[in-house]
C-alpha cells in the first residue's frame, strides 16, 4: 500500500459523515450499555431490533407518517422485541445469550414481513421529510447531537430514580435486590425493553440517514455497540479518571461510537476492503476487552510472584 | 410474630442427590423474641432461614408472620417483612453502588419504586446520623462505592440496611463468621444494640456457643432438619457450653464429631 497515493483531503471531507454515523451508533450503544454494563446481561437481540426499528420507520414514512412519529413507532417496536427476550429469559428460564439469539432470529423473518417481503426498502429524502440524511450532513450532525444529549439527560435522570436504582441493584447483586424487595424479573424485562427500544430508535435514524432499511442492517450491531461502549470507557477513564460520573459514562459511550466510525473512516480511506470491516471490528473489541483483563493479570501474576520470590 | 408449622423441605427430590433438609420444623416466636440457633453443619439452620425468606418454596407446612400467611409469596414479596444479613459480606450490599444509595434501596423495601429521585437530601442527612452511630467513619464516605469497604464495614452497613425499614423479623445467618474476632465482636455489639433499640424479633444462627448463650432470650438447637432443643428465659441464661455439647452428643448418638462446634 502506498500511503503517499492517499489523498488526505478525502479523509477530511468524509469526517463529518463518519461523525454523524458515529452519533447514531452511539445512541444504539447506549442501549447496549444499559444491558451489558448496568444489567450485566449479554443481549444479542439488538442485531434484530436495530433492523426492526429501521424497517418500521421506513415503512411508516413511505406510507405518509411523519418521521418523528415513525421513529417513536420504531422505539415501540424495539420495546416489544426486548420484552420478548425478557420474557423468554425470566418466564421460560432461557439463558440470556440464547434468549437474545432466539429473538434476533425470529426478528429476521418479522423484519422481512414488515418490509413487505423485500430485503431492502428505500426511503428517498427527495420525496419525504426525514429527520436525518447523508445528503444534509450538517443537519444530521445537529439532529444527532441534540437527540443524543436529550437521551443522555433523560437516562441520567431515570437511572437516578427509585426505579432506575432498582435496575442498577439488580445488575450488581440480584440476591441483595430480592432481599430488598425488588422483583428482579420485572426490572430485567423493563431494562431489556427500554434498551431495545433505544436500539430500534437508532435503527430508525440510520435507515433515514442512509436512505433505506435493510434486513441485514443490524448484523453485527451488538459488536459495534460493544466497541463503542468499551472504547468510550477506556477513553473516558483515561481522560476523567475518578471523576467520570454516570453522566460522563453515557456521554463517552456516544464518543466511543464516534471514534469507532472515525477509525472506520480511516480504514476505508486506506483502501482496506470494506468486506474486512467486521473482522477489523471484532479484533478491536477483542483487544479492548482483553487489555484491562491482561493488565490486571500482569499486575497480579504467578510468574511475577515467582520472580520476586527468587530475589 | 413468627409461626412455622410443620415445615418440610427436601432438596433434589427424586434424584440420587435427594436430601431431606427440614423434616417437620415447628416454631413459634413472640414479638421481641431474640432466638439464637445452633447446630452442626448441615443441620438445617440456613435452610430454615431460607424457607422463611422464600429463597425457594417449601414442600409442606405453613409460614405465618404477624398473622399474615406468607407461604405462597415469592422472595421479593416477603422482603417487606424481613431484614436479612448473610454470612458472606458480599451478599448483602450492592458493591458498585454508593453507601447512601444502598441505604436508600433498603429504606424503600416493601414500597413501590417509582420515578421519584432514588435518594433525597433529607435522607442523606438521616443516614449521616445513623452511620455516625456505627463509629466506622462511614458517614463521611456516603458517596463511596460499597465495594471499597471491608467485610466488617459491609456487615455493619447491611445490619443498618436490614433495620432501616423496621422488619417484623430479622434473619441473621452466621453474619459474623467471615470476620476477624475483633470485628466480629463489634458487629455482634452492634447487632445487640439495633435489636434492643428497635425491639426486633430476631433469629440469629451462630457456631459460637458462648454467643448463643450470651445473646438473646431464647436458644434452639437443630439436628438433621429438626429442632431438638428449645430453651428460653432464666433456664437459657444458666446454660454452659458444656451443657450444649452434652445435648448435642445425646442427639447425635454419641458420634460427636463436629470440630466447628468444638472450637467455640
Ligand atoms: N440449595 C440446596 N440444594 C441442595 N441441597 C441443599 C441446599 N441448601 C442446603 N442443602 C442441604 O441441606 C442440608 C442442610 O443445609 P443447611 O445449609 O441448612 O445447613 P446449616 O445448618 O446451615 O449448616 P452450616 O452450619 O454448615 O451452615 C445440607 O445437607 C445441605 O447440603
Ligand atoms: Mg448455614
DSSP strand tally of chain A:
2
Distance between the termini of chain B: 31 Å
Rg measurement of chain A, Å: 20 Å
Global outline of chain A: globular
Overall mean pLDDT of chain A stands at: 93
* Class by alpha and beta content of chain B: alpha/beta
How many DSSP helices of chain B?
10
Q: What would you note in describing this structure?
A:
- The complex is a heterodimer of chains A (311) and B (264).
- Chain A has a domain at 15-216.
- Helices cover 75% and strands 2% of the residues of chain A.
- Chain A contains twelve helices and two strands; from the N terminus they run ααααβααααβαααα.
- Chain A has helices at 8-39, 46-62, 67-90, 96-114, 137-158, 162-172, 174-179, 184-210, 221-240, 246-269, 277-298, 302-310, and strands spanning 120-122, 212-214.
- In chain A, strands 1-2 form a two-stranded antiparallel sheet.
- In chain A, helix 5 packs antiparallel against helix 10 (246-269) and helix 6 (162-172) packs across helix 8 (184-210).
- By secondary structure, chain B is α/β, with parallel strands linked by helices.
- In chain B, the strands form two sheets. A six-stranded mixed β-sheet of chain B has the order 6-7-8-3-9-10, sandwiched between helices.
- The interface between A and B is medium-sized, with 22 and 34 residues.
Structural features:
heterodimer, A: 311 residues, mainly alpha, two-stranded antiparallel ribbon, 12 helices, 2 strands, 75% helix, globular, B: 264 residues, alpha/beta, 6-stranded mixed beta sheet, 4-stranded antiparallel beta sheet, 36% helix, binds adenosine-5'-triphosphate, binds magnesium ion
Amino acid at each position: 500500500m502506498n500511503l503517499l497515493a492517499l489523498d488526505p483531503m478525502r479523509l477530511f471531507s468524509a469526517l463529518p459523515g463518519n461523525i454523524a454515523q458515529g452519533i447514531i451508533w452511539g445512541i444504539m450503544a447506549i442501549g447496549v450499555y444499559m444491558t451489558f454494563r448496568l444489567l450485566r446481561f449479554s443481549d444479542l437481540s439488538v442485531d434484530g431490533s436495530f433492523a426492526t426499528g429501521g424497517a418500521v420507520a421506513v415503512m411508516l414514512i413511505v406510507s405518509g407518517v411523519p418521521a418523528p412519529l415513525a421513529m417513536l413507532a420504531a422505539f415501540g417496536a424495539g420495546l416489544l422485541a426486548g420484552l420478548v427476550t425478557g420474557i423468554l429469559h425470566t418466564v421460560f428460564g432461557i439463558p440470556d445469550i440464547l434468549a437474545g439469539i432466539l429473538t434476533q432470529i425470529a426478528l429476521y423473518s418479522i423484519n422481512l414481513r414488515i418490509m413487505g417481503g423485500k430485503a431492502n426498502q428505500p426511503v428517498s429524502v427527495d420525496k419525504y421529510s426525514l429527520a436525518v440524511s447523508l445528503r444534509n450532513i450538517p443537519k444530521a450532525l445537529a439532529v444527532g447531537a441534540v437527540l443524543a444529549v436529550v437521551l443522555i439527560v433523560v437516562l441520567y435522570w431515570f437511572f437516578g430514580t427509585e426505579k432506575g436504582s432498582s435496575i442498577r441493584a439488580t445488575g450488581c447483586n440480584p440476591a441483595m435486590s430480592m432481599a430488598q424487595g425488588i422483583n428482579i424479573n420485572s426490572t430485567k424485562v423493563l431494562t431489556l425493553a427500554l434498551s431495545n427500544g433505544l436500539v430500534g430508535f437508532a435503527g430508525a435514524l440510520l435507515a433515514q440517514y442512509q436512505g433505506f432499511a435493510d434486513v441485514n442492517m443490524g448484523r453485527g450491531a451488538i459488536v459495534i455497540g460493544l466497541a463503542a461502549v468499551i472504547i468510550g470507557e477506556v477513553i473516558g477513564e483515561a481522560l476523567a479518571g475518578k471523576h467520570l460520573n454516570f453522566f460522563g459514562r453515557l456521554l463517552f459511550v456516544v464518543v466511543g461510537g464516534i471514534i469507532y466510525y472515525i477509525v472506520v473512516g480511516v480504514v476505508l480511506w486506506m483502501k482496506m476492503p470494506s468486506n474486512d470491516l467486521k473482522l477489523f471490528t471484532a479484533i478491536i473489541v477483542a483487544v479492548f476487552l482483553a487489555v484491562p483483563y491482561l493488565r490486571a493479570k500482569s499486575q497480579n501474576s504467578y510468574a511475577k510472584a515467582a520472580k520476586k520470590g527468587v530475589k | 410474630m413468627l409461626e412455622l408449622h410443620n415445615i418440610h423441605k427436601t432438596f433434589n427430590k427424586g434424584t440420587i442427590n435427594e436430601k431431606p433438609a427440614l423434616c417437620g420444623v415447628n416454631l413459634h416466636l413472640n414479638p421481641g423474641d431474640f432466638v439464637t440457633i445452633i447446630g452442626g453443619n448441615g443441620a438445617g439452620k440456613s435452610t430454615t432461614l431460607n424457607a422463611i425468606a422464600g429463597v425457594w418454596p417449601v414442600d409442606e407446612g405453613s409460614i405465618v408472620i404477624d398473622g399474615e400467611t406468607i407461604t405462597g409469596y415469592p422472595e421479593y414479596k416477603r422482603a417487606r417483612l424481613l431484614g436479612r444479613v448473610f454470612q458472606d459480606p458480599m451478599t448483602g450490599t450492592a458493591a458498585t453502588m454508593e453507601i447512601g444509595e444502598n441505604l436508600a434501596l433498603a429504606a424503600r423495601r416493601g414500597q413501590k419504586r417509582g420515578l421519584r429521585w432514588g435518594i433525597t437530601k433529607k435522607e442523606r442527612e438521616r443516614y449521616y446520623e445513623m452511620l455516625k452511630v456505627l463509629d466506622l467513619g462511614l458517614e463521611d464516605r456516603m458517596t463511596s462505592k460499597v465495594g471499597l469497604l471491608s467485610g466488617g464495614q459491609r456487615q455493619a452497613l447491611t445490619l443498618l440496611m436490614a433495620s432501616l425499614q423496621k422488619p417484623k423479623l430479622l434473619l441473621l445467618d452466621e453474619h459474623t463468621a467471615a470476620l476477624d474476632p475483633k470485628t466480629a465482636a463489634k458487629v455482634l455489639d452492634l447487632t445487640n444494640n439495633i435489636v434492643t433499640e428497635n425491639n426486633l424479633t430476631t433469629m440469629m444462627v451462630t457456631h459460637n456457643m458462648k454467643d448463643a448463650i450470651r445473646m438473646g432470650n431464647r436458644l434452639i438447637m437443630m439436628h438433621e432438619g429438626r429442632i431438638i432443643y428449645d430453651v428460653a428465659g432464666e433456664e437459657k441464661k444458666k446454660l454452659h457450653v458444656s451443657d450444649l455439647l452434652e445435648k448435642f452428643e445425646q442427639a447425635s448418638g454419641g458420634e460427636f464429631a463436629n470440630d466447628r462446634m468444638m472450637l467455640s
